[in-house]
Amino acid sequence: MKMRFLPTTCFFLAAFLFSCTAGISQKTDSRKSPEMLSAKRLTARDSLRIRRGLLKQINRDRQRHGLSPVKLDLPASRVGDRHCREMAREKYMSHWNLQGLKPYHRYAFAGGRDHISENLYSATVWGQTFTCTVSDISGKMRRAEQSFMSEKPPYDGHRKNILESYHTHVGIGFACTNDEFRMAEEFVDRYVILDKTGTKIYRGEKKRISGKILRHRLYPIMAVVNYEPVPARKSKKELKKTGPYLDGSRYSFQTISAWEMSFYPKSRRFSFTLDFAKARAGIYYMILYLDRKIDQSLYQNSGLKKRAGTFRLSTRHAIPATGVVFRLE
Q1: Distance between CA atoms of residues 70 and 56, nearest Å
Q2: Could you tell me if 47 and 157 lie in one domain?
Q3: Tens of pLDDT along 228-268?
Q4: Helix (H, G, I), strand (E, B) or coil at 207
Q5: Which residue range is the domain that position 134 belongs to?
C-alpha cells in the first residue's frame, strides 16, 4: 500500500508573522485513484471522543515541557472541520481555501474574535482505502501529533506552535474519505472578551473598540491593524503552489499605542478608537497585544500627560489576544 503523509512545515518569521509552508507532493500514480467517497458518518459522541483523544496527547506534550494544558474549543473545531472537508474533497492541502481565505479569515467570519494559528496534516492512499472508523482516524491523528513533535530546528514550526506558552484552547478538525485524510489544529489565544461591534465598516467611520481582559496582571500595550485586499478565489492549481502565510499582511494601516487607550485595572476594561478616514475597500485585521509589564501612567485615563515619543513599546514578547477582521466593501 503506497501512502504519503504530508504535514505542513511551519515556522515563525517575526513577532508579527506566523507562517506555514504546505508540503504538497506532486507525485502521481499510474493506477486510477479510488473514487471520492463521503467519510463514514460518525456520531457526535464519536467525533468528540476522537477530538478528546488528540487533546490529551497535545496536553501531554505541553505538560512534558512545563506548559499549562489547553482546552478543546468546539467553534474552532467546526472551522477546522469545514476546511478539512474541502481539502479532502478537492484533494489539496493549503492554509488558504478555494475562496482565498486564510485561517484567521475563516475563524473570524465564523464569529471568532480570538487570535489563532494553524497546524495542518495530510495523508493520501492509493490502491486501498481508509476505513475512517474511530480507531483509524484516532491512529492517524496520533501519528500526526508524533510527527509534529519529532520535528527538528529550523523546520520545527508545528512543534513550536504546539508548545507556545500563551495558547489557551485548541480546535481540532478532521475529514476522512476513502483515499484522503486531513487534520487541523487551530490553536486559540483567548484572553479578551470584546464588546459587541459590527465588523462591516464604512470609509470615514471611527469605530470604538472596548472589552475586558480575562486575566489579572495583563495589560493592553498595542493594537495593530493591517490592510489586505478582498480575498480572491483560488484554483486548486494555485492552492498547490501556496506556501507561507502571514498573520496579517505587510501593509500596516494603523497602530494604536497604550497612550491612545484607556484602561481601568480594577475592572480590567479597556477602550480605544480606530479611525477609518483613509480606508479603502478590503480587509482590516486587528490584533490587540497584551503584556505583563507596563507603566500604567501611559494610559489616556491616568490623568498624567506624558509624551509618546519618550516611550518605546514592543510586541516581541507580547501575547496576541485578538484576531478581529473588519471588511469595507
Answers
A1: 9
A2: yes
A3: 999 999 999 999 999 868 999 999 999 999 999 999 999 99
A4: strand
A5: 42-187
